[in-house]
Design a protein that fits this description.
Elements: E1 5-10, E2 17-22, E3 31-33, H1 39-42, E4 51-52, E5 59-63, E6 68-71
Length: about 80
C-alpha cells in the first residue's frame, strides 16, 4: 500500500470538501485543510487532478500559488 498525505480541498462551486492526495514530503498519512497545508505538500497536490465534486459534479483542481480551488473548463 502506498503512503501519501491528504489535502481537504473545497469545491469552488458548492464548498463540499474533496480529498486530494500528495506524495510530496514524508507521506505520513497526515490530513491538512488547503489553507493550512505546508508548501512542500502542495507541490504534488494536483497529481490526480482534475477532481469531480461528488455533490455538484463540478470539475476542479488546486491553483497552488493562491491556495484556492479553481474550476476547470471542460472542452
Amino acid at each position: 500500500m502506498g503512503m501519501y498525505d491528504t489535502v481537504l480541498v473545497p469545491c469552488p462551486k458548492c464548498g463540499e470538501e474533496e480529498q486530494f492526495q500528495s506524495k510530496s514530503g514524508e507521506c505520513l498519512l497526515q490530513c491538512f485543510k488547503l489553507s493550512e497545508c505546508p508548501d512542500y505538500i502542495l507541490r504534488n497536490v494536483n497529481r490526480h487532478s482534475p477532481y469531480e465534486c461528488e455533490k455538484c459534479s463540478s470539475v476542479f483542481e488546486v491553483h497552488v500559488d493562491s491556495r484556492k480551488s479553481v474550476l476547470v473548463k471542460e472542452e
